[in-house]
Amino acid sequence: MEKFFVDSTQVFNDNIHISKEDSRHIQKVLRKRIGDRIYITINQSSTFLCEIISFDNGIVICQKIEQVLENTETNINISLFQCIAKYEKMDDIIQKATQLGVKEVYPVISNRVVVKLDEQTKIKKVQRWSKIAQEASKQCKRMTIPKVENVIFLTNICNYAQKYDIILLAYENDKTNLKEILQSCKQENVKNIGVVIGPEGGFDIEEVDELLNCENICSVSLGNRILRTETASIALISNILYEFGEL
Ligand code: SAM
Fold first, then answer.
1. Architecture of domain 3-68
2. 81 lines ligand 1 (CB under 6 A)
3. Cross-strand pairs, 153
4. What pairing do the DSSP bridges indicate for beta strands 3-6 and 192-197?
């Protein structure tokens, strides 16, 4: 069953008014009829099974039937710092990271990122990636939509270090065993983990040295093979989830 997000301004007692864009989708693409049911999450916190009760000037109006208590969010908070990848790869990474449950995505510019973005394009890209995160959240029935933050530079990550119990920097020239690091994170009841993934060309050694000087950041290996950037992010996030019993 399809799901949609609304905020409290769209809720009137037991009735919920779906946004124009989603209403169009419900009517024209999904071809829903009065009496059909959908899930609606309000304020990214509570989800209801709802029934469509009318189509009013293009707006779909639903009635709450019952609250759905199942929590689809992970207990561990993972933020992805992803160096911007070429073509549609960044879209795919954001879509898959959303499905896996990441809470935030920071698009990152590092020395070897080849995509060139002026200020206007950065804003447009963040809007596009936010939309991808929203669509993926609907599809996988999450209760929240990961926030795609503004584009940052790699060195800025140090300024975020305090927000996390640990930031894992995936670095192919490192031999630090991921399983050991994650097991100790689990023992220490770590709740907030950042992961940093380099671009197609990898990190410069100077960039790695600078980041490793920051508090809370440590490098990890993802095995003896070189993974593509889009594989590395998904592999690292999946392994964290597995180790914390979320897969
Ligand atoms: N510079 C590398 C090269 O050309 O040989 C490849 C970089 S890799 C395609 C892109 C990113 O994925 C890396 O910067 C790193 O963050 C991550 N990555 C890929 N394989 C990895 C591995 N075996 N261990 C840790 N990180 C890896």
1. Beta Barrel (2.40)
2. no
3. 109
4. unpaired
- How far does the centroid of ligand 1 lie from the alpha carbon of residue 173, in Å? 8
> Does residue 170 have its Cβ closer than 6 Å to ligand 1?
yes
Look at ligand 1, atom 19, and give the residue with the nearest C-alpha. Answer: 227
CATH number of 77-243: 3.40.1280.10
Q: Which two tokens stand for residue 232?
A: 């590395």
Taking all residues of the chain, what is their mean pLDDT, rounded to a whole number?
96
93 contacts: CB under 8 Å, gap ≥ 6? 80, 82, 85, 229, 230, 233, 234
Domains of the chain, residue spans: 3-68, 77-243
pLDDT tens across 180-219, in order? Answer: 999 999 999 999 999 999 999 999 999 999 999 998 999 9
Give me 231's structure tokens. 């594989």
Report angle CA 141, 143, 146 to the nearest 5 degrees: 100
Contact (CB, 8 A) for 81 and 179: no
Ligand 1 atom nearest 201 alpha carbon: 1
82 lines ligand 1 (CB under 6 A): no
Distance CA 57, CA 86 (A): 41
Average pLDDT score over residue span 161-168: 95
